[in-house]
Write a structure and sequence with these properties.
Layout: E1 3-8, H1 19-37, E2 41-48, H2 53-62, H3 66-78, H4 80-83, E3 90-93, H5 100-113, E4 117-127, E5 132-134, E6 152-161, H6 167-176, E7 180-182, H7 184-195, E8 201-202, E9 204-206, E10 216-217, E11 220-225, H8 227-232, H9 234-237, H10 245-253, E12 257-263, H11 267-281, E13 288-292, E14 295-297, E15 300-301, H12 312-319, H13 321-330, E16 338-340, H14 342-372, H15 387-405, H16 409-430, H17 432-442, H18 447-467, H19 472-481
Helix pairs in contact: 2-3, 5-11, 6-7, 7-11, 12-13, 13-14, 14-16, 14-18, 15-16, 15-18, 16-18, 18-19
The structure holds one RNA strand.
Length: 505
RNA sequence: GGGACGGUAGCUCAGCCGGUCAGAGCAGGGGACUCAUAAUCCCUGGGUCGUGGGUUCGAGUCCCACCCGUCCUACCA
């Protein structure tokens, strides 16, 4: 058994969540549930990044205090926990969680003690939306490539972090695999960025420009800690850095794996700045960073203005949490962005869940009820007709383990569908209804049908077990209906409903 | 400008270190069955594996160039 910690990035809460957020939450949740099922000691964490300047502006625009604005919008993210059937152990809000500020201050003090901070005047083009400086050349027609807004020309005296000191050590950590960046193409991308030369970066903003929102720099009330420095710290402040050292040791320093799940847009912060900050402060580094791609929706980049920012809460309500979970796991490619459409979700749900797995469970449970009054026969020691089914069933767990280790959720999900396929094929080949008729009309012995039914129940139970991390709600239903390993099945009831799109769409 | 990753059947995609690698699923066509959520099973694919070269006995699978897409990175007029 090992100790496993997995974390999402914390989204800044301005605006509503979209399917892209759901993707990251679901992937992380599946990793956590998977490890728990295997018996590991697991801690899964998410939260919200509240201290961005953007929140101040939005709050001002609405004429409400920042605190209450942030509390309100954060609810949209918090509520996804239930809507998507997530199993996070912790949710940290950087503005109001009492654990956060002391930890950030401690981290700051540790970097300062190392001599990694210095003051410098900086002039640059700053995009408030990104909370990031851009070089002239990075802009698209003078506008932020992410937000399409004109960045502000900013000149101020800030604290800088000596990132340049850590260039070699960072390259070593990543190329050696001690800090594993996945997929490999992302690791190469990070390494080439590091090798191109790292420059110190600014880790504070003037109190004035931050409108007083954020965490003041210890010993310098004129400056506020840069929101990225602040936000990244959540990964250690939540487990107790700066507030509960015993807990922190347990859930960070002494954990066997510390895994970040992030989107491709913030690799630099997580694979370069963050490990460097930790090295500076003398804190253990994360062990893995899994980078996912982005989702588009209806063929376009997700944005509020395009009107395609699908609300995952609404999707889950409309199609079911497990249908949405299944889509993000089964249909999202590892390389390249994937387009979300309702149609794709519905197709996946109907093909894999309703028609394949759901129907197999349904026909199995129905037959056990019809032919054996719900009593599950004993599994035959020898069943030549089920050789292939047994082979596929027995191999699934290892194949899934391999896929999960590579963060290949799609392949893992496919393995489960293959088990369902083989189960359905077995039903056709074994024709239990013919065996039942033979018992009735020809007084045939029950052993043949017993063996088939037992094989099918075993398959459905295995499907339920394999699905636990992916579709927790539905997996529980399958297991319950199949008798939970006991001697009887329940009444048949469709586990997955067939979905339809409104004709209007 | 440099680099990464994609470009494989109508659609979504598998194809590791070169030799059943020309595939799966969906869609389409035909058939079977009835236990089941009009579900399932079987049969059915005349695709220049982005383009052009090269290496090799043999290349989606390696090399070079180019085109298209996406993404990193870069203060050259």
């Amino acid at each position: 058994m090992s100790r496993y910690v997995v974390m999402t990035a914390i989204p800044y809460v301005n605006g509503r969540p979209h399917v892209g957020h759901a993707l990251e939450l679901i992937e992380t949740d599946v990793l956590a549930r998977y490890r728990r099922q295997r018996g590991d000691e697991v801690r899964a964490q998410t939260g919200t990044d509240d201290n961005a300047l953007k929140n101040v502006q939005s709050a001002e625009a609405e004429g409400v205090p920042v605190e209450s604005y942030v509390e309100r919008v954060a609810q949209n993210f918090l509520s996804l926990g239930q809507a998507l059937d997530l199993s996070f152990d912790d949710f940290i809000k950087t503005s109001s969680d009492p654990r956060h500020r002391p930890g950030v201050e401690k981290l700051w003090a540790a970097c300062a003690a190392r001599g990694d901070f210095y003051r410098k005047t900086y002039t640059g083009l700053y995009c408030t939306g990104c909370e990031q400086f851009y070089a002239e050349s990075e802009l698209v027609e003078g506008r932020c490539p992410e937000h399409g807004t004109v960045p502000d020309l900013v000149e101020e005296d800030n604290w800088f972090f000596r990132l340049s000191r850590y260039q070699d050590r960072l390259a070593e950590e990543i190329s050696s695999g001690r800090l594993r960046v996945e997929p490999a193409s992302r690791r190469r991308e990070v390494l080439s960025f590091i090798e191109s030369g790292l420059e110190d970066f600014s880790v504070s903003r003037s109190m004035k420009r931050a409108r007083g929102w954020g965490i003041p720099v210890p010993g310098d009330p004129e400056q506020v800690i840069y929101v990225w420095y602040d936000a990244l710290a959540n990964y250690i402040t939540a487990p107790g850095y700066g507030t509960d050292e015993a807990r922190f040791a347990h859930w960070w320093t002494e954990a066997d794996e510390r895994v970040h799940v992030i989107g491709k847009g913030i690799i630099r912060f997580h694979a370069v700045y963050w490990p460097a900050m930790l090295m500076s402060a003398g804190v253990t580094l994360p062990s893995q960073i899994f980078v996912h791609e982005y989702l588009t929706a209806d063929g376009a980049k997700i944005s509020k203005s395009a009107g395609n920012a699908k609300d995952p809460g609404e999707l889950a309500e409309r199609f079911g949490a497990d249908a949405l979970r299944w889509w993000t796991l089964r249909d999202v490619a590892r390389a390249g962005d994937t387009d979300y459409t309702d149609e794709r979700l519905v197709t996946r749900n109907n093909e894999d869940l309703a028609n394949n797995i759901g129907n197999l469970v349904n026909r199995t449970v129905s037959m056990v009820n019809r032919y054996r009054d719900g009593a599950v026969p004993a599994l035959a020691a020898d069943n030549p007709g089920a050789a292939e089914l047994r082979r596929v069933r027995a191999g699934a767990e290892a194949q899934i383990a391999e896929a999960m280790d590579a963060y290949d959720f799609r392949r893992a999900a496919e393995v489960i569908v293959r088990v369902g396929d083989e189960g359905n094929r077995y039903v056709e080949a074994a024709t239990p209804w013919v065996l039942a008729k033979a018992e009735r009309k020809e007084d045939a012995p029950p052993a043949a049908l017993d063996a088939v039914l037992a094989e099918l129940v075993a398959t459905c139970r295995e499907l339920g077990r394999l699905l636990v991390p992916f579709l927790p709600g539905s997996a529980a239903k399958i297991l319950r209906q199949c008798g939970d390993g006991g001697g009887r099945v329940a009444e048949p009831e469709p586990v997955f409903r067939r979905l339809e799109l409104d004709p209007a769409e």
